[in-house]
Predict the structure of Integral membrane protein.
Amino acid sequence: MRRGLRHILRTVITTVLLGLLPVGPASAADDECRVSELTSARVTASVRFKHEGEDYSKAEGLLTVKVPKSWSRAPDLLLNGDTERYRTAMRCLLRFPDDPFPYRDTEGRTAAPEVTVEEKWVTVDQRVLTWVTGLQTRHFGPWSLTVGDRLWRLELMPPSALGRAWWRKVTVDLGGRPARQVSSPPTTGGPTELTWVQRKASGKPPEIDVTLQPPAAKASAARWSEHPWYVLDALGWLPLHGALLVLVLLTARAVRRESVSAPSAGAVPRTTRNLLIVAGLAFAITVVQLFDDTLLGHFARQGTAPFWTDEHRISVHMGLALLTGLGLCGFGRPGRAALAAVVAATGSGLAVACRPEWFALPSGLWLDWVNAPDDVLRFRDGGGLVAFTASCTCVVFVWLVGVTAVLLRLWRAAGSTAPGRTPGRFPHAWLAASAVLSVALCAVSLWSAQNVWEHQSWLSRRNASEDYGLWHMATLFADLRWFPSDWLDWFHGTYFWWWAPSLAILAVLRARDTAAVPVTALPSAAELRTLKAFFVVCVAPVVGWYAGVPLPLLSLLALWLVLSGLLALGTRRAVLNRELPRTGHRLHEVARGADRQRLLNAARRHRELHAQLRRLEQGQQEEDRFRLEGELDRLHRLPHPSPPPGLPNTWIRLPPSIGPVELALAWGPRATAWGNGCRAAYFAAVFAVPGVVLLVWADHVRGIRWADKFVQRFGLVDTVTAAVALELLWVGAGFTLGVLWRVLPGRRGPVRAAGLAFVYASPVLVQLAGSRLVGQPLGTWPLELSLVLLVLTLTGLAMDIDTFRGERRYWPTRTGLLLSVYQWRTASVQMAFLVGQLVALVTIWQQLKGNDPMILIERSPSESTGGSGN
């Protein structure tokens, strides 16, 4: 009896004591993570800030956890990353196990945590990083960074399962900036590097709370993406496009004032009118692209027109994207079949935007899986994701048809002589290709959104409950819903805003070349203005971002001044612009295009006579030196442009340092400036291919950058379009070199190319100087500038060789012909070529070797505007 009473009393007491113990989430975490087995774990952590040499301040964290092999979860750390047991084990060591759905969009990882096995321990090394691109709180690894206007607060937030582990050493490197406040004094270190060391296990991690003040430039860059500054960011880029529009308008006016009278002159006003329309259309789309996100985001925060700016914001983006695409189709006139397809695609896209409930989409195109799970279920089961992806496909299709039609109309107008509509039709094969490409782009975008989800929710419980599927679907759609706005930002904001005006300017130049009667030796004043506009719009790099503040007009002004200065120098120092002694005439007025063959023959005879003189000096042959010099003297004379009466055979000597060879080289390989431009564009296209491959590798493929393409909406296709854009840019540079060939200073092709390369580099040099002041990285600009110089130099050499292409069959190699044309000695040329190659190799190697990105390239921060709503 007593034994029974004791048993009952013991049971009651045990039950009461267990009831008094906490049974909240901590108990569940202890049970899952076996926290009692982690008391012997050893932890070291570090964080390092980097301010200089970055667009934004960067923080890199390293967490090293050594757990004993006796820990029940230790074997799970060696499993595949897709297994639930692996995610559970990692969640215990790296996050808070109580949260079944951990999601971090502020933490970047270059690789999965590294796991190594030792005799008694299993070590986990996790490397994380974050860029401070805004004022929100950023969580990365065990750290929390709260970003303020001027002061930032860094806190250590250890995972709960490691709360009783031995935190042996914690290091905080502030990147050369002393702390403004430190909560607990460090054990060792200095003003900019603080270290907390625990000599023995204390069962409690150190309390670290550090306040730092970043450089003013980096604080400005972080603050500029917040409200309301992101509106000013768009306003900062708008003057650049406004200046380009004014430049195109002035160019069109100059072309109209300089009339051309020829049977084919009808193409000139038509191409000029197209240029005006395309420039205005591109500017209007640019305004939409710059302000669709920023203004809607600003109005939403202000509570202005919430029906449009908040409740139906995505529908507005969809409508703007379709409207701008229809504007392109309206100008391009793609034809009946293409127009019917565009109308059908537009109707489908507008139906999804205006009546989303018809397609299992929520009102306002927003899913709330917490408060409205039924909407998510209906969206998932009714194929809402497929319907919205199809509407995005319609947007891309309308745009691709419009872009193709615009480019076709612009170029066909230059070759059409009949008034009225430009002949030609929209090829059905291109229509089918546009449809296929649209589907592929949207499918890849959906796939990249899934990759982003995998990257940011990699530690979530996949089979915990039905909530995971709802959360996954809602988050995936929340990413994809911004596709219409992102499409404008990427395709038009990066490429099309300069593709269409550039082709329109080329069409004007082509039409003027066709209509030019008689053919002029040098470009006219209107053509020079048009070429300057082409170089600014098509070729010149767009730079001017300093610490979050866009100032592109500074670089544009530098470019315009240097380009104008180069052409002004050419009016005095170009070979064909040199004045003849005592006459006041210029060389291009005397040596006309009709005399070109005679000039080539004279140049060839001049080189032969010089070769004979050199052999005569070396004693290799016997010749009458006075006869050779007399013939050379005659080759240095031209017929008098306006001989005195009674002296029809008066001759005049060429200017000093100008001989028959220089005169022939100055004309270039073709009879017209347009022909020279096309020839130089061809050479530049060939020589640019290795450079394009190298730059695409450096900017898009090198290191982790290739892996980044799989988490970017247009990452993969952007690699292709960037290669195409680089090729077009360098082809445009070669074309400009060829058209300006006769008015650029210099007697040899490489000298002419060097002047144009300096013009290209002028805005970049302004950017590099500003980057030095605010501590921004130089990127691959030094590599690109060296490649541009190399491509243009090779193009100049090829143009000089092509000028004497009639002699090519007499020389075994082009190098031999070039040596003869330049009259260089073989040894000196080989030495100069070797030195030049060594300098180029050293420059490129230094650009690619010593930088961290060659070893470890981290993901760049997202630069979406603050009004994007992401």
The first strand starts at residue 42 and ends at 50. The chain is about 55% helix and 10% strand.
